[in-house]
Design brief:
CATH architecture of the largest domain: Beta Barrel
CATH class of the largest domain: Mainly Beta
Strand order of the largest sheet: 3-12-15-14-13-16
CATH topology of the largest domain: Elongation Factor Tu (Ef-tu), domain 3
CATH superfamily of the largest domain: Efflux pump adaptor protein, beta barrel domain
Distance between the termini: 67 Å
Shape: rod-shaped
Largest sheet: 6 strands, antiparallel, barrel
Order of helices and strands: HEEEEEEEHHEEEEEEEEEEEEEEE
Number of domains: 4
Number of helices: 3
Radius of gyration: 44 Å
Structural class: alpha+beta
């Protein structure tokens, strides 16, 4: 067989070089991916509310007068802090106050009458004792002794009657005071006035039975607040009273508040067109006064079911179906699909029990198109999360 000429060999080399260069320059560009390093840290198992929760006040009183009347004194305004038993609103009550003054004067008169009647009894009682003693000594007649004893009994009864009239007058004072108190709205606890519906001179009436009306004063206990949050019925069996929790608010996005589960509703909420949920009350562990956490704020409650420290963990978002992850191969920039075994986890991190080691590099952009086992990638950003 004749050997190829030098020209033929040169042509073959040239063609191979051209094909190689064409293949090199037309090869697909490596996928640009983001990565994270497998590390140790804390991992929590949590459940969260299905819909936004709401900050509630432990105590809230929508106050209205017991009787109808005209507002004569509006002692507070919206946003004002008040103390227990402080007067908030007073209806026109001059007639009741005048009646109270009258009855109080009647009490004074009744007391004076009682003192007079009882003083007469004391005198008559001493006189009866003196004449009885003289009668026994045969120095006074039996008739005088009996008259003195009868007079003592009569004045004793008069004294008792006068004291009873005094007690009746005192009772009338209490009745008038109770009537007067019905014209006054007082703070049942320390709080802040959330709303005032009324002005001086306006007439207000109590709500008819079964017909709610606007309260004259809406009072809120600002010193005790909690979050009422709906938890999905699937997660409800895991939630127990006393579990730690975190409260987050849109108004304070970078400030989670430590909290504790204090109460779990004993029944399932079945609201039309919504998932069945259980209401859970989560109380703030402590609230700094200047944070102004107002009742009515929307809030989320994350209940911590379990927590493990110093365990191997990866971002939960890097795990796809069947507990698999994409790992950057140690020998180069190629991707390896790897099966792992997981423990507890939440939306942020998941515990790794097997399949990865600290320092391994995993792909975090698993939703990128074209990512698969064996493909070459280019690292856009290497971060330790």
């Amino acid at each position: 067989m004749p050997k190829p000429s030098y020209k033929t060999l040169a042509l073959i080399v040239l063609v191979a070089t051209v094909v190689g260069l064409f293949t090199y320059f037309t090869r697909p560009a490596p996928l640009v991916v983001t990565v994270a390093k497998v590390e140790t840290g804390s991992v929590e198992s949590t459940v969260t509310n299905t819909r936004a929760g709401t900050i509630k006040a432990c105590r809230r009183a929508r106050l209205a007068p017991h009787i109808g009347g005209q507002i004569s004194n509006l002692a507070v305004k919206e946003g004002q802090k008040v103390t227990k038993d402080e007067i908030l609103v007073e209806l026109w009550n001059k007639d009741v106050k005048a009646e109270l003054l009258l009855v109080q004067n009647e009490v004074k008169a009744a007391k004076a009458t009682a003192r007079e009647a009882c003083a007469r009894f004391e005198t008559a009682d001493r006189e009866a004792a003196r004449l009885t003693k003289l009668f026994k000594q045969k120095l006074a007649s039996e008739e005088l002794a009996e008259q003195a004893q009868g007079n003592a009994k009569a004045t004793s009864a008069a004294c008792d009657a006068a004291r009873d009239r005094e007690n009746v007058a005192l009772s009338r004072v209490e009745v008038i005071k109770a009537t007067l108190e019905r014209t006054i709205i007082r703070a049942p606890f320390d709080g802040v006035v959330a709303e005032v519906n009324g002005e001086i001179g306006e007439f207000v009436t109590p709500s008819p039975m079964g017909v709610p009306t606007l309260p004259v004063v809406d009072l809120i206990d600002y010193q005790c607040i909690y979050v009422l949050a709906p938890i999905d019925e699937v997660d409800a069996p895991q939630v127990k009273e006393g579990l730690p929790a975190r409260i987050t608010l849109d108004a304070f996005p970078d400030h989670p508040f430590p909290a504790t589960v204090r109460r779990i509703s004993p029944y399932i909420q079945d609201v039309e067109k919504q998932a069945r949920t259980v209401d859970v009350e989560v109380y703030f562990n402590h609230v700094v006064g200047d944070q102004n956490l107002l009742p009515g704020y929307s809030a989320d409650a994350e209940i911590i079911l379990d927590k493990k420290d110093n365990v191997l963990r990866i971002p939960t978002e890097t795990i796809f179906e069947d507990n698999q992850v994409y790992v950057l191969h140690s020998s180069g920039n190629t991707v390896e699909k790897r099966q792992i075994k997981t423990g507890i986890g939440n939306w942020s991190y998941t515990q790794v029990l097997a399949g990865l080691a600290a320092g391994d590099i995993i792909i975090t952009s698993i939703g990128i198109e074209g990512l698969k086992h064996g493909i070459e990638v280019q690292i856009a950003e290497a971060t330790s999360r």
